[in-house]
């Protein structure tokens, strides 16, 4: 195990540095109000029904809609309502990043007429709001056709106010604790741990994919955890008693699943490989049921205790459940209901898929586009992040750099999920610390 510990210590510093460097002002709230004057006439009676579409530039240099104003009917001098938008949604926290503001004339048939656009940044919007500077709406087609073309109207920034919001680090510095529980898939589809082809292969000289996933994520969580104790559970195994379990303790204890740091989790994991039987058809290693709901419910009970009296962030506990699996979820309906129930609790779920299974169903749980719903129940917020480990291989190998990239990806949403919960419950950073 000495090699494991050496790898852990090396990885810990670099992953933590990646996480800490991600703190920017993307959580600030921006109040923006814009008026227009002398817009182009698009309607038959010499007026227009204008609205604005505000688009941010993403990491792929493509523009995506961040906000659309209401339509103001029959006017060339609209006064749109003020609106509040997060800095992340408007510019991903970069106040110098280009923003495209396009103006359209609304039509009943759903095909708007283009009026013009301008490029601007939040910094420029802020300066414009404090001066008489106007933004020129330009229609390139008209500009190329008319020599005397000036613009297709002007925009006046009436208000651009930035209200700083607490960020993830504010809560961590002032008492919030991150408690990470590890869940490991022991179904037979992982392969015989004695064979090198197995995802659970017990190699004395290297980390297998389960161990690397645990180290990459746990290295960050451990730095935020005061007692450095990690509950570690397994699912999909046949215990020595003959019982099929979906939430047994890796350390063999009957009443305490805690392991001493990441090193303790790795030790307990290795011990379990010797003490339990991967469940399923052992001869062909066909998987038994891969049930997620029992472990999610187990961790939810811990989160419930903190949720009942959040108060302030002082000594507040937030639960992260790391699930490492090679299979498709068997109890998907029960898992959806468990996730929806947990969405109102101080809890996030990270699912790392290992192996070459088709993980398409996981995207439904990782509900980035819309909140998870099932049988008339809707999640209060998105708490699931799914990452496919295969995508982080380099030339087919799990390298140190791919472990760094994995950690960055799986923890990308956790700070935001924590902030969403704090705001949902009106939990402020405790400034007395």
From TrEMBL:
For this record, the Gene Ontology CC terms, alphabetical, are: cytoplasm; nucleus; plasma membrane
ATP-binding: is it a keyword of this entry? no
The C2 domain covers 10-135
Which Pfam family is one of those matched by this entry? C2
What are the GO BP annotations of this UniProt entry? Answer: cellular response to calcium ion
- Molecular-function annotations in GO: calcium-dependent phospholipid binding; metal ion binding
Protein family according to the UniProt entry:
Belongs to the copine family.
What this protein is called in its record is: C2 domain-containing protein
| Taxonomic path | Eukaryota, Metazoa, Placozoa, Uniplacotomia, Trichoplacea
């Amino acid at each position: 195990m000495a090699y494991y510990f050496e790898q852990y210590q090396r990885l810990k510093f670099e992953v933590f540095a990646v996480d800490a460097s991600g703190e920017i002002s993307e959580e600030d709230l921006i109040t923006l109000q814009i008026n227009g004057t002398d817009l182009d006439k698009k309607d038959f009676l010499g007026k227009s029904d204008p609205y604005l579409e505000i688009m941010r530039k993403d990491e792929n240099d493509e523009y995506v809609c961040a906000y659309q104003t209401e339509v103001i009917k029959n006017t060339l001098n609209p006064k749109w309502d003020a609106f509040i938008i997060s800095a992340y949604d408007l510019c991903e926290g970069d106040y110098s990043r280009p923003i495209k503001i396009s103006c359209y004339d609304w039509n009943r048939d759903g095909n708007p007429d283009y009026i013009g656009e301008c490029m601007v940044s939040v910094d420029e919007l802020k300066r414009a709001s404090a001066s008489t500077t106007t933004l020129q709406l330009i229609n390139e087609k008209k500009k190329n056709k008319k020599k005397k073309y000036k613009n297709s109207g002007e925009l006046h920034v009436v208000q651009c106010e930035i209200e700083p919001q607490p960020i993830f680090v504010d809560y961590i510095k002032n008492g919030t604790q991150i408690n990470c529980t590890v869940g490991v898939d022991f179904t037979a589809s992982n392969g015989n741990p004695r064979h090198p082809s197995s995802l659970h292969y017990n190699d004395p000289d290297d980390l297998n994919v389960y161990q690397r996933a645990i180290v990459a994520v746990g290295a960050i969580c451990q730095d935020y955890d005061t007692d450095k104790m990690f509950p570690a559970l397994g699912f999909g195994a046949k215990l020595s008693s003959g019982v099929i379990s979906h939430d047994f303790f890796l350390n063999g204890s009957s009443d305490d699943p805690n392991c001493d740091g990441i090193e303790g989790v790795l030790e307990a994991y290795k011990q379990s490989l010797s003490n339990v039987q991967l469940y399923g058809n052992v001869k062909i290693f066909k998987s038994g049921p891969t049930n997620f709901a029992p472990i999610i419910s187990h961790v939810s009970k811990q989160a419930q205790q903190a949720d009942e009296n959040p108060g302030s962030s002082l000594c507040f506990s937030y639960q992260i459940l790391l699930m490492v699996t090679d299979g498709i979820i068997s109890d998907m309906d029960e898992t959806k209901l468990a996730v929806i129930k947990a969405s109102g609790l101080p809890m996030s779920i990270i699912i790392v898929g290992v192996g070459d299974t088709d993980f398409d169903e996981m995207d439904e749980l990782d509900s980035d586009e819309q909140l998870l719903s099932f049988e008339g129940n809707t999640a209060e917020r998105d708490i699931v992040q799914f990452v496919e480990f295969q995508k982080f291989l380099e030339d087919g190998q799990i390298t140190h750099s791919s472990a760094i990239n994995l950690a960055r990806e799986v923890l990308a949403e956790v700070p935001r999920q924590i902030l969403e919960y704090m705001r949902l419950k009106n939990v402020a950073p405790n400034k007395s610390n």
